[in-house]
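R.M. (postdoc): so does anyone remember the format we settled on? I'll just put the structure tokens first.
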């Protein structure tokens, strides 16, 4: 970062760097949030691969690719052209496709139930404690998964529902923590990096699960990932704090920088304006995008390993690798989207609302078109199908700088509860999607049945993206401006303008800052200075 880009604190004519160390306490939180989400998502998706090894498939004949050319050598292999080889492999469980759909979707019933309670608990108990509980509980239940499956499928479903209940509180809790830790102008980049842990954990989880199932058996998948979850929980409890003021190792400069750059009302517990939230068109724009994105993450991705096995005829190791490719692309897109969005939001470029809409257009409407193309792809090309699905699912990663950040843009004090509301509705796709796939393929597990499923998925993507573009907002809504917005210190960033007073005369005006929660005046810094002089003098005397 150049000197011009650094924010400075003005006191008695002197300037001091207020951002703290290059890698500070807020960066540590983001990094550990990445690891926590990676572990939780690995625990979430392991069943998608393990179930292929655990339960019988529709056909009584188990097909192997050992007699087939390597993947990519012949991209026009059709199901009827495959040479089947009878193997002496007996699946441990005799579950129908419908029952397997229930096993896959059970997690999301619990996940659905705890979104809003989780956000309310996070505001009262703190996000740290809830995320610690989710990590420990999910890991312990993963260790019990093999035993529960062997006792009865109903016990396994109950374990997965409980796992979903625990993980349902995580995103609301993380959002509440970010609202107190992440400075406004770093929001897209830092949130995108931490949320990339979801894709990282999924990639590692799918690849490792496929290899482990092939080599040492499916139960070991749950033992390894459960053990790693307990280790991650211990680190989270020791290193993470709910707010900057509670952190024992944060520097004073970084603490003041963070607290001056987030809404100070977040530290007060304002009354939730339920009526205003529920009647806000912006909320429903976010909700539509959230549903569409979750359909891809939960419905399509959960069913993808089964499609790879039953229709494209890949073995377990290939299945794990290929099923992870969309997540790998999503991971990269997450990182690119965050930095790109923050760059585009700089003064003189694009307003926040336009950046959010652009990211969602790339991440939903584009992939929706590709899914429709995959559904009607002529021939039986495996390579072409994998490429289209990978690009379609992978590019959905751009939404992390779109609707995923938008709760913080329009209502920072209530971002946790709003995220819980949109995520609750989005989570329904986790049990609706596998149920739809199971119903379509239970008695007709053919490519035509999966074609219908992908057609539905493409339509969901496109509609969600269009609704967001129509209703999204980028500035703080009037009902979300609560409490005293004065900050502890006066921040005067040369590049971004004064956070209290709006842009300085030499800077081009940033529309979102002018209309957002940091703006207290008409745009004339001298007028605002006159009004704040007495408060500032008292507060600045306390600064070292």
């Amino acid at each position: 970062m150049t000197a011009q880009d650094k924010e400075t604190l003005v006191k008695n004519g002197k300037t001091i760097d207020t951002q703290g160390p290059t890698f500070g306490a807020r960066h540590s939180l983001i990094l550990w949030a990445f690891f926590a989400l990676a572990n939780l998502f690995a625990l979430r998706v392991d069943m998608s691969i393990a179930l292929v090894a655990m339960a019988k498939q529709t056909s009584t004949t188990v097909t192997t690719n050992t007699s087939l050319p390597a993947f990519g050598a012949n991209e026009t292999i059709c199901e009827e052209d495959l040479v089947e080889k009878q193997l002496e492999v007996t699946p441990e469980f005799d579950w129908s496709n419908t029952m397997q759909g229930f096993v896959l979707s059970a997690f999301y019933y619990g996940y659905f139930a705890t979104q809003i309670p989780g956000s309310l608990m996070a505001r009262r108990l703190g996000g740290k404690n809830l995320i610690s509980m989710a990590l420990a509980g999910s890991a312990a239940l993963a260790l019990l998964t093999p035993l529960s499956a062997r006792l009865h499928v109903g016990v396994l479903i109950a374990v997965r529902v409980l796992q979903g209940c625990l993980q349902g509180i995580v995103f609301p809790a993380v959002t509440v923590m970010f609202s107190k830790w992440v400075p406004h102008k770093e929001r897209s980049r830092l949130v995108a990096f931490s949320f990339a842990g979801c894709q990282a954990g999924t990639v590692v989880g799918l690849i490792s699960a496929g290899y482990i199932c092939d080599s040492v058996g499916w139960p070991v998948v749950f033992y390894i990932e459960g053990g790693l979850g307990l280790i991650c929980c211990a680190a989270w409890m020791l290193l993470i704090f709910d707010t900057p003021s509670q952190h024992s190792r944060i520097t004073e400069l970084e603490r003041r920088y963070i607290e001056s750059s987030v809404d100070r009302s977040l530290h007060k517990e304002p009354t939730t304006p339920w009526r205003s939230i529920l009647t806000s068109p912006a909320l429903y724009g976010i909700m539509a995008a959230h549903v569409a994105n979750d359909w891809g993450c939960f419905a399509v991705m959960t069913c993808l390993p089964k499609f790879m096995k039953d229709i494209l005829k890949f073995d377990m190791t290939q299945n794990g690798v290929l099923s992870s490719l969309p997540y790998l692309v999503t991971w990269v897109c997450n990182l690119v989207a965050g930095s790109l969005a923050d760059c585009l939001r700089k003064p003189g470029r694009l307003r926040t609302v336009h950046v959010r809409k652009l990211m969602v257009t790339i991440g939903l409407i584009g992939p929706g078109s590709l899914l429709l193309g995959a559904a009607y792809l002529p021939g039986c090309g495996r390579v072409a199908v994998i490429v289209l699905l990978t690009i379609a699912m992978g590019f959905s990663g751009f939404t992390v700088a779109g609707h995923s950040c938008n709760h913080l843009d329009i209502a920072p004090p209530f971002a946790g509860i709003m995220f819980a509301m949109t995520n609750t509705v989005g989570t329904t796709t986790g049990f609706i999607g596998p149920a739809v796939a199971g119903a379509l393929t239970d008695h007709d597990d053919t490519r035509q049945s999966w074609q219908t499923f992908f057609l539905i998925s493409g339509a969901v993507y496109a509609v969600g993206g269009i609704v967001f573009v129509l209703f999204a907002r980028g500035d703080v809504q009037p009902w979300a401006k609560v409490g005293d917005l004065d900050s502890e210190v006066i921040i005067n960033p040369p590049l971004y303008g004064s956070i209290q007073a709006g842009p300085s005369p030499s800077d081009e005006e940033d529309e979102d800052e002018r209309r957002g929660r940091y703006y207290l005046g008409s745009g004339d810094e001298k007028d605002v200075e006159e009004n704040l002089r007495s408060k500032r003098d008292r507060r600045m005397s306390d600064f070292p």
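R.M.: ...and that's the designed sequence above, right after the tokens. Also worth knowing: The CA atoms of residues 411 and 480 lie 5 Å apart. Residues 23-56+94-480 form a domain with the Growth Hormone; Chain: A; fold (CATH 1.20.1250.20).
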